[in-house]
């Protein structure tokens, strides 16, 4: 039987398990890793604690793009720490301001057929180049850098079969919005979304990357495109054609299911507040008054996006009732945009232009006003992520966002009269010098006062009885658990400080109650922990004493983080048990009675009854959790179930 593109990549990196058994546990070794400033502080602290002295990958790259507002010393201290640590460990480090990690990696390092493990949930952006790219938390990124395999469930593979051509004014973002419209924020769990069919050839690498990037919002392990002549042209334009290889699925490759999309039939789509899965045609909400438009992020600020925006804004202005801003993705995109005169129409229209960074996407600048309605080209719109607690964020393609900025209301771009837009990838991009630091000689690494050691967590012998401190609904995001925004991101690696804000958008009393109760248990609905890769969303509940979380189910990436930090994940066997539990009930989890299948009993001491739960993790991961997390386990490596 032939292989899919994803299987060919996995075969290239497989060190444990059977890739022909979908859903079984496999180990893959990264050829490359990627990290950014927000998660990599923990990565380097972990490498330091484990006594690793040099990365063991073909290439590891560190970016500085998330924590860029230097309102005090904290972010600047982190930047210096990362420059020093990367030099010490043999990691390439981008200068702050060189660009957003996913786009910079796409320009300079991504290679078809290889496996990338990245400390960010949108790492699948590299799938646009034909890379098998998986997002993880900072600790798993550290393990990958140390040459350890990443263990995942062998994904099922869904073919997304594209036919036809996108109509005018309907750009590539609408393809992934259509995928989300069909399968929502959980439809990709345990799967790879592999794009195929004649429609693939109509998309350039930046467009493909927008699709694979935002594929993360379906919960998919990753998304991937073949590597073809368009991929070759992209790599040629970035002066690295020698790294290109062709990569496509075999004729007789087996897919587990198929999604058919006729590109010609797509129309402008938009995700409603506050979930990327609430997708409707733009025309259904056209006329909704807006306050803000954010253009850019790691999706939708390649050169083709900026040129398309300039084409729309030419001779027009942003509505007086709207504040609009552009975050270009890299310095190369800025250089090329200036060269082509694209910034002129944007500046004249009143679009504010920020430096290449994540910025408003995760609430680090450009937060909307109170109750503000914001249309964004970002991949994610979870409540409060913009920095404003009661935000109303819509997600769209750049053309919809630009048209809406001009009219002041959500606007289908087909209703605005602007010239046709056509883009040809340049033969060669002019690249600014000095995008990446040269390695420096490090005599001493500087730890700023905000950099605190990783907290120590004890082994689990048994879960003592604990109070249900929060009963949560479906789709709790990592933004709920550990807030984003300019006020909180600089303290994200300072666990004692950031823990004071855990679940602040749901219940501000939670951290104090957890401390007073000396810990407890969380109960949640479906898809607990969806969203970003931030492992602090696992660490801070653990720091506050949460030892177990019982949910209907968990998001993949967050589940891995819970294992790494020694929080016991359990799932309800019966929905009725979730319904019956009340916040404040006292539960006892009988961890040591867990069967080989991961089943055990929980006693509800308050309601005087037992119910069954199962852990969704493998026996090996149960061992890790019992160690109190992977750091403890790795320190006791001779006893540990890890592969060298
Ligand atoms: Fe940055 Fe937002 Fe992308 S935080 S990595 S621009 S999803």
Describe the structure.
The chain is α/β, with parallel strands linked by helices and 644 residues long. 27% of the residues lie in helices and 18% in strands. The chain has a 7-stranded mixed beta sheet, sandwiched between helices. Strands 20-21-22-23-26-25-24 form a 7-stranded mixed barrel, surrounded by 4 helices. The chain starts with a helix and ends in a 9-residue tail after the last helix. The structure holds FE3-S4 cluster (F3S). The site of FE3-S4 cluster (F3S) has 13 residues, from loops. FE3-S4 cluster binds at residues 66, 100, 102, 120, 122, 297-298, 358, 361-362, 378-380.
Most strands sheet: 7 strands, mixed
Number of strands: 26
Low-confidence segments: 639-644
The radius of gyration over CA amounts to: 23 Å
Mean residue pLDDT:
95
Derived from helix and strand composition plus strand pairing, the structural class reads alpha/beta
Strand order of the largest sheet: 14-13-19-18-15-16-17
Number of helices: 21
Envelope shape: globular
Structure ligands: FE3-S4 cluster
Helix content: 25-40%
Terminal CA distance:
31 Å
Portion of residues in beta strands equals 15-25%
Short description:
By secondary structure, the chain is of the alpha/beta class. 27% of the residues lie in helices and 18% in strands.
How are the SSEs placed, and which strands pair?
Blueprint: H1 5-11, E1 14-16, E2 25-28, E3 32-36, H2 37-50, E4 59-63, H3 73-89, E5 92-93, H4 101-108, E6 115-118, E7 132-135, H5 138-145, E8 150-153, E9 156-163, H6 173-183, E10 191-196, H7 205-214, E11 222-224, H8 229-237, E12 257-262, E13 269-271, E14 279-281, H9 282-285, E15 292-296, H10 303-313, E16 323-327, H11 331-339, H12 343-349, E17 352-353, E18 373-376, E19 392-396, H13 398-407, E20 466-471, H14 478-481, H15 495-498, H16 510-516, E21 520-524, H17 536-543, E22 546-551, H18 556-564, E23 568-572, H19 575-580, E24 586-589, E25 599-604, E26 609-614, H20 619-626, H21 630-635
Parallel strand pairs: 3-4, 3-6, 4-5, 6-7, 9-10, 9-12, 10-11, 15-16, 15-18, 16-17, 18-19, 20-21, 21-22, 22-23
Antiparallel strand pairs: 1-2, 2-8, 13-14, 13-19, 20-24, 23-26, 24-25, 25-26
Helix pairs in contact: 2-3, 2-5, 6-7, 10-12, 10-13
């Amino acid at each position: 039987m032939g292989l899919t593109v994803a299987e060919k990549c996995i075969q290239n990196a497989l060190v444990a398990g059977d890739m022909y058994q979908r859903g079984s546990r496999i180990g893959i070794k990264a050829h490359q890793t990627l990290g950014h400033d927000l998660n990599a502080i923990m990565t380097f602290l972990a490498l330091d604690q484990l006594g690793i002295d040099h990365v063991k990958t073909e290439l590891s790259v560190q970016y500085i793009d998330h924590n860029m507002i230097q309102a005090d010393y904290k972010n600047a201290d982190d930047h210096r720490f990362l420059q020093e640590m990367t030099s010490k460990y043999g990691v390439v480090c981008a200068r702050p301001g060189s660009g957003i990690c996913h786009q910079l990696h796409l320009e300079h390092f991504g290679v078809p057929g290889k496996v990338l493990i990245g400390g960010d949930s949108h790492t699948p952006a590299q799938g646009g180049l034909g890379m098998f790219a998986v997002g993880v938390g900072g600790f798993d990124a550290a393990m990958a850098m140390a040459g350890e395999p990443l263990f995942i469930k062998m994904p099922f593979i869904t073919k997304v079969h594209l036919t036809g051509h996108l109509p005018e004014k309907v750009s590539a973002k609408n393809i992934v919005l259509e995928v989300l419209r069909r399968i929502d924020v959980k439809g990709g769990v345990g799967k790879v979304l592999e794009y195929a069919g004649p429609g693939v050839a109509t998309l350039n690498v930046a467009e493909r990357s927008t699709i694979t990037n935002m594929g993360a919002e379906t919960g998919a392990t990753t998304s991937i495109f073949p590597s073809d002549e368009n991929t070759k042209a992209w790599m040629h334009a970035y002066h690295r054609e020698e790294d290109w290889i062709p990569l496509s699925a075999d004729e007789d490759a087996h897919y587990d299911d198929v999604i058919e999309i006729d590109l010609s039939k797509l129309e402008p789509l938009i995700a409603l507040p506050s979930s990327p899965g609430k997708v409707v045609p733009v025309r259904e909400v056209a006329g909704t008054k807006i306050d803000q438009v954010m253009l850019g992020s790691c999706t939708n600020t390649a050169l083709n996006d900026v040129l398309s925006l300039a084409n729309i804004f030419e001779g027009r202005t942003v509505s007086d009732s709207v504040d609009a801003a552009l975050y270009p993705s890299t310095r190369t995109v800025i250089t090329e945009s200036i060269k082509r005169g694209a910034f002129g129409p944007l500046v004249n229209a009143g679009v504010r232009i920020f430096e290449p960074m994540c910025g408003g996407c995760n609430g680090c600048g450009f937060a909307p006003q109170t109750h503000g309605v914001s249309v964004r080209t970002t991949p994610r719109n979870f409540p409060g992520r913009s920095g404003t607690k009661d935000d109303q964020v819509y997600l769209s393609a750049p053309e919809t966002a630009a048209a809406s900025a001009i009219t002041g209301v959500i606007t289908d771009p087909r209703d605005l009269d602007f010239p046709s837009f056509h883009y040809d990838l340049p033969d060669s991009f002019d690249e600014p010098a000095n995008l990446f630091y040269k390695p420096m000689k490090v005599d001493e690494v500087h730890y700023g006062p905000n950099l605190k050691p990783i907290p120590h967590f004890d082994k689990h012998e048994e879960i003592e009885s604990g109070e249900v401190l929060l009963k949560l609904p479906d789709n709790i995001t990592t933004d709920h658990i550990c807030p984003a925004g300019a006020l909180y991101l600089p303290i994200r690696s300072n666990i004692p400080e950031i823990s004071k804000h855990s679940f602040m958008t749901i219940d501000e009393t939670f951290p104090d109650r957890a401390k007073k109760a000396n810990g407890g248990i969380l109960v949640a609905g479906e898809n607990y922990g969806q969203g970003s890769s931030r492992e602090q969303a696992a660490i801070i509940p653990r720091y506050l004493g949460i030892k177990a979380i019982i949910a209907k189910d968990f998001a993949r990436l967050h589940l891995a983080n819970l294992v790494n930090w020694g929080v016991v994940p359990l799932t309800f066997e019966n929905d009725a048990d979730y319904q019956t539990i009340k916040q404040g009930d006292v539960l006892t989890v009988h961890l040591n009675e867990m069967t080989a299948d991961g089943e055990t009993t929980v006693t509800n001491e308050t309601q005087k009854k037992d119910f069954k739960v199962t852990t969704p993790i493998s026996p090996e991961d149960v061992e890790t959790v019992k160690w109190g997390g992977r750091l403890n386990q790795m320190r006791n490596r001779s006893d540990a179930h890890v592969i060298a």
